[in-house]
């Protein structure tokens, strides 16, 4: 059995058999969070504190350079974890338990669980020098359903590459807020609702749990667009739109 518990923003607790994993830990309170000369505005606290989450076997960190994916309390939590899988940039900046996981590189945990780094593109083609390095993950093994964690990916071409290697997947955790900031004006930095529905089709995903679609003002889309987008593509029965603190069992 796999259990996905949504905490808010990009943060979800994944119980993959007996293995506990946490995506992009964000535990800070609402407020303004500077990014260079700009600020991202958080509007809600997570459903659980770091102490309430407790220990995990690994943190899956899509990237460390933006406070909506790793904030101060999340950083403290991650650096106490036994293992953090992330980008080479995060390894250089954070050190400690962070291991750089290259695209298509697997790492094997206990209980036969394998986590593979997969590509993610945090915006349009050519924007990486502005937004920085990002990664996604595929979790397999131990007799549990295969899980794809998109991270801050905006590219359906990237999704197709992942589907070509791993599809169909059982559960897709898609970062689906249609994020926009002045850093790269007038484009989406993560999947839109329609993009999430298309990604589900490409992946052949049996279940989709959206993440990173609320609790920050730079998200342009959320529940009111996700539900009709999945209905239009005939995938309404695959969408699991959790409220903070809720969980789904697969």
Total of helices: 7
Major sheet characteristics: 7 strands, mixed
- Shape annotation: globular
* Helix percentage range: 10-25%
CATH class (first level) name: Alpha Beta
Mean pLDDT over the full residue set: 95
Please explain how this structure is put together.
Strand 11 (135-141) and strand 12 form a beta hairpin. Helices cover 22% and strands 28% of the residues. It has a seven-stranded mixed sheet with strand order 8-7-6-3-2-1-15, covered by helices on one side. 46% of the residues are buried. It has seven helices and 15 strands. The protein has a single domain (2-235), classed as 4-Layer Sandwich (Metallo-beta-lactamase, Chain A). The model has no long low-confidence stretch (mean pLDDT 95).
């Amino acid at each position: 059995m796999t259990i996905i518990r949504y905490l808010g923003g990009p943060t979800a607790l994944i119980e993959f058999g007996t293995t506990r994993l946490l995506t992009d830990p964000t535990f800070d309170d609402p407020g303004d969070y500077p990014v260079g000369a700009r600020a991202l505005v958080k509007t809600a606290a997570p459903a659980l504190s770091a102490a309430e989450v407790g220990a995990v076997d690994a943190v899956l960190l899509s990237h460390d350079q933006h406070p909506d994916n790793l904030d101060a309390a999340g950083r403290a939590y991650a650096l106490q974890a036994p293992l953090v899988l992330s980008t080479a940039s995060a390894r250089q900046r954070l050190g400690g338990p962070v291991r750089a996981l290259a695209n298509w590189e697997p790492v094997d945990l206990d209980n036969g669980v394998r986590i593979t780094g997969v590509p993610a593109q945090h915006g349009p083609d050519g924007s990486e020098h502005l937004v920085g390095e990002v990664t996604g993950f595929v979790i397999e093994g131990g007799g549990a359903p295969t899980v794809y964690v998109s991270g801050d990916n905006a590219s359906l071409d990237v999704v197709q590459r992942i589907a070509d290697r791993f599809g169909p997947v059982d559960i897709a955790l898609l970062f689906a807020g249609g994020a926009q900031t002045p850093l790269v004006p007038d484009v989406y930095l993560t999947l839109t609702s329609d993009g999430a529905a298309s990604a589900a089709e490409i992946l052949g995903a049996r279940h989709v749990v959206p993440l990173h679609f609320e609790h920050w003002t730079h998200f342009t889309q959320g529940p009111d667009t996700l539900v009709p987008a999945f209905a239009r593509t005939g995938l309404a029965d695959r969408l699991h739109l959790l409220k903070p603190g809720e969980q789904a069992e697969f």
